[in-house]
Each structure stands twice: as C-alpha cells, then as structure tokens.
Amino acid sequence: MHTSDYWIRHFRENARHQRVNWTLAPTITKDEIAEILPSLQAWQLGETSEGEHLIAASTKYAYALGDPDYVNAVRLFIKEEQKHGNNLGRYIDKIGEQRIKKDWGDSLFRKVRYLNTSMEIWTLAVIVVESTAQIFYQALKDATQCRLLKQICTDILIDEAPHIAFQTERLAIIFENKSAFSKAWRKVVYRWFFYGVSALVWFGHKRLFKAGGLTFERYVHKMRYKYYKTVKAITAPLVVEFA
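Structure for Ferritin-like domain-containing protein, as requested:
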C-alpha cells in the first residue's frame, strides 16, 4: 500500500518519459484500418474525459479522509489518461481519418459517472475499464504491423499497470472500512459489475479483439484472471508502505 505522495511522485516521473517516436510515418494498411478504426475512434473518445466528476468525488472523499494529496494524485492520473487520448487522436489524424464525438459505450459510461458521487463506485468502474484496456491495447498492438501505432500501444500498456495498482489500493482502503456484512455483499456486487462491464466491452469491440488474435474464450479467461487478482488485492489485509 502506497501513500498519495508516492503516487504523485510516480505520475510526475512517468510523465517525463517519451516513448513514442512521432517522426515515424504510419504504415497501417487499409485492411488493418477496416478492422480496428471504429474501436480506435471509440477508445480515443473515451480517453479524453476532463474528469471533472471524478475530481469532485475524490475531493469530497479525500478531505473527509484527511488526505488532500489524494486529489493531486487523481489529477495526475487523469492527465496521464488524457495523454493516451491525445496520442490516439494524433494517430487518427495522421492516417487521415476522423475523430468521433459520440459513441454508445462512452455515452453510457459518462452517464453512470455523472449520476455517481461515490468514490467506491468510481474506483471500481475505473479498475474494470483499466483491466479491459490492458487487453484492448495488447490486441490493438497485435492487430497491426505499424510501428508508430505499436509504440503508442506500448506506452499506454506501460502506464496501465500502475493505474490499476493505484485504483486497487484505494478500493482496498474503502473496502477495509466496511462491516463484515457489507464486505460480503460487496464481493457479489463487484463480481457482477466486473463481468457485466467486461461483456459490454467484448461485444462493443469484438472485431478488434478478433483482429488481435483473441477469441471470446481467451478474452473471458484473461478477464477472469484479472478479476481474481483484483479481488484478492482488495480483500487482503492492508500494509501501508511509507515511500
């Protein structure tokens, strides 16, 4: 378990790394574009959120907890997500395609966020989305031979693992403060929410996943692994590391 100050230092240090060589020309083929473009456009839109509602929820939560630094950590987390959206958008521009302004999956997720003020639900939602993102970007990377797009995906994948750790640690703190009864029913809710969102992501982007070599069975296997890994981390006894 890390402090908010640790995560602030992590995000600031990570922002110094430039892993994408924008002097490379995109070499994606027309066939590859046909397979991945709709999902690429949709995911790019989803990565561009300003995060106002998340900041509001985290501010309320952090000051109640007495940890105002957590808000700064969340702001840096959002900034890193926006970098992903900017890079994907820049790539879409370079291949002469259009960015989109609306997508059903993004619209649904935004409505859930707008109606929600609970830090617990926010954090759980981000964990699920980040978990699916790891599989999505690996599939996107495997679906093309374009070096530039592969570098963009690699950069995002490097960022995503700490993102999940950041959110999982927070949900573990929230979970730990619940009663035994609350913990019991939350495990059920977490499971249904995790697999429900995972299913929506598959059906929304199955063409991209298949282009990256994933079957539905393999996708489910990967998400099941991520689910158990996350739940174990959330329900484990907390050990605070002052780093």
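The chain has one domain: 29-235.
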